[in-house]
Design goal:
Elements: H1 2-8, H2 11-38, H3 43-57, E1 67-69, H4 72-79, H5 89-109, H6 121-138, H7 140-144, H8 153-162, H9 169-185, H10 193-212, H11 220-223, H12 241-265, H13 276-292, E2 299-301, H14 302-310, H15 317-332, H16 334-337, H17 342-356, H18 359-367, H19 370-385, H20 388-409, E3 412-418, E4 424-427, E5 438-444, H21 452-458, E6 470-475, H22 483-498, E7 502-507, H23 510-518, H24 521-525, E8 530-532, H25 539-555
Parallel strand pairs: 5-6, 6-7, 7-8
Antiparallel strand pairs: 1-2, 3-4, 3-5
Helix pairs in contact: 2-3, 2-10, 2-14, 2-15, 2-17, 3-13, 3-15, 4-12, 5-12, 5-13, 6-17, 6-19, 6-20, 9-10, 9-17, 10-17, 12-13, 12-20, 18-19, 19-20, 21-22
Length: about 550
């Protein structure tokens, strides 16, 4: 414990951590408000989530520099969760954050980090690209000052475009100023603090325009009272738990995926790979802390994490310093926070949404083939038109379909030739089983129900000319086989039997042998036609080959 504290408060690192913490703490104030705005809730819930979620996860994540904050994708899921239908929407939000945290912790304790690799790139690319578009579409009303109507973000966009004359010129001016300043500051030494400066300058312009113009620009103070102090802890509402189960699982899924991306992208001081399961636990603790202190759900943030690394952070102390800076702003400058202009926050979020769209990733998926491209497109389209918690589940289903399709298409059948001297080589299988031949076939790939038709299609044809042939199928490396594959083998054996030929199997795994025997197929093949491989590679298939030749000699 003392060693850990000495490491945190080392003179060699504390200066760098202080600077990085100051940058993150100041930048997190407008970012947190923007996240709350994006979620369609009290923007202060986003601010509190940034503060307490970040500090709550500090010492529990495996990734030293993982900033646990509200993310755009998670904010959109909150927005689509219909919290306004609950008796106490604010309490439902805090309950949702706590439930998300509990799901994440359970997933981490069960080693859920291993499951991340099963999410296909095509699904995540389609989902995250649509999230970027949704962020942009979701802020157009605040950006233009026109409250558009519609059942989803696309219909609201059409309504917005039909009412261009009703847009607020002052709001659009403020939003465009913020967007322009953010991009301008990227080319200056100001760096990430340019986000804060742009929002401050845009809000200052909004205050001036409100003095001069009859149509005011909406400020944060106009929609919510900014308290002078930190929030008091609250307890979850048990009544809302059944209603919030699906959003909580969706939030946890998106949070752990984004957190895994952060873990894989950022260095650790010791150079060792991050433990994604432990990162789940840290994110879960951050969510519970955020929920208890009136914040929205949080997850691993790539932008916040990259910011502190770029600013020179050295230890986890950076998050404590950032939290202290945020708390100081809330306590001392709460009146100033109330002057933040909503079009300024909308401009900031539009920039974030544009940054979430990665054309290079989309192009790489398109190059990978028509099936991944189709799945990416479907995920993208669904994420735009249906609530995100359902889009996440559909994406998971599409990922499973993609995995099954890819695995089934990877099955290949090769012909094995046993040469004089015991040497073995492979080639493409013969198209038709010749009469009196001994043909050894070796399938490669995952043999399961979806690959059964492909495997059957690749088997050499059995015809009338196949009389007296023996086919040996070598199932080496196949650790299990389903009933669909057994039926394929059974039909092939019957075809061979009708042509007065026979089938032998060479099996390496006991589980496969048990499945063949329990299905009754081993008995159908007859005694001596099912071989169990030994530890010596090639020994059993040579024995089966020798037995086949001997059987043919006896038949002659």
């Amino acid at each position: 414990m003392r060693a850990a504290l000495r490491k945190l408060f080392s003179r060699k690192t504390i200066g760098k951590d202080a600077v990085a913490g100051l940058v993150l703490g100041v930048e997190a104030v407008p970012d947190g408000l923007a996240a709350g705005l994006l979620a369609g809730i009290n923007p202060l819930a986003g601010l509190y989530a940034y503060l307490f979620g970040m500090v709550g996860a500090t010492f529990l994540t495996s990734s030293t520099f993982m900033a646990v904050q509200a993310t755009g994708a998670m904010a959109l899921i909150v927005s689509d969760s219909d919290l306004q239908s609950r008796a106490d929407p604010d309490r439902a939000l805090y309950t949702l954050a706590i439930m998300t945290g509990i799901v994440m912790i359970i997933a981490g304790l069960l080693g859920g980090g291993r499951l991340v690799r099963f999410v296909p790139t095509a699904v995540m690319t389609g989902f995250l690209t649509a999230v970027g578009v949704n962020i942009i579409l979701g802020q157009l009303s605040n950006f233009t000052g026109f409250d558009s109507k519609g059942t989803n973000r696309l219909t609201k966009l059409f309504d917005l475009l039909l009412h261009v004359p009703q847009w607020s010129l002052a709001s659009v001016t403020v939003g465009l100023l913020v967007i322009g300043l953010i991009y301008l500051f990227r080319f200056t030494p100001v760096g990430s603090l340019g986000l804060v400066i742009a929002v401050v300058l845009g809000s200052g312009l909004a205050v001036l325009l409100n003095i001069w113009l009859a149509t005011p620009v909406l400020l944060l103070d106009d929609i919510v009272e900014v308290p002078r102090g930190l929030p008091a802890p609250v307890l979850p509402n048990i009544v809302d738990v059944p209603f919030l189960l699906l959003p909580a699982f969706s939030l946890a899924f998106v949070g752990v995926i984004q957190g895994a991306a952060v873990s894989a992208s950022l260095p650790t001081p010791d150079g060792k790979p991050a433990d994604t399961s432990r990162d789940f636990i840290g994110q879960g603790a951050g969510n519970i802390a955020a929920g208890f202190f009136q914040g929205m759900p949080v997850g691993g943030s790539m932008s916040g994490s990259s910011l502190i690394v770029a600013a020179g952070a050295r230890t986890r102390l950076v998050f404590i310093i950032a939290g202290a800076v945020m708390a100081l702003v809330i306590l001392v400058a709460s009146d100033l926070v109330g002057f933040v202009a909503m079009p300024a926050l909308a401009g900031l979020l539009i920039v974030i949404g544009i940054g979430a769209i990665k054309p290079s990733r989309v192009y790489s998926v398109i190059k990978s083939g028509p099936l991944p491209t189709a799945i990416m497109a479907v995920t993208f389209g669904l994420t735009l038109v249906i609530p995100l918690q359902f889009a996440v589940l559909v994406g998971v289903g599409l990922g499973i379909i993609l995995f099954v399709a890819q695995q089934s298409n990877r099955v290949r059948v090769r012909q094995v030739h046993v040469l004089e001297g015991g040497r073995i080589r492979e080639s493409e299988p013969v198209p038709t089983i010749p009469a009196g031949a001994v043909v050894i076939l070796q399938p490669y790939g995952s043999l399961f129900f979806a690959s059964a038709p492909i495997f059957e299609h690749q088997l050499p044809v059995v015809s009338r000319e196949s009389e007296g042939a023996v086919v040996i199928i070598r199932l080496r490396g196949t650790d299990q086989i389903g009933l669909s594959l057994i039926e394929v083998l059974r039909r092939y054996a019957h075809d061979l039997n009708d042509a007065d030929a026979s089938l032998k199997l060479v099996i390496s795994e006991k589980l496969v042998l048990d499945q063949i025997e329990s299905s009754g197929f081993a008995a159908e093949l007859g005694e001596g036609n099912v071989y169990r491989s030994t530890e010596w590679i090639g020994e059993t298939v040579r024995q089966a080959y020798s037995d086949a030749l001997e059987e043919q000699r006896r038949r002659r």
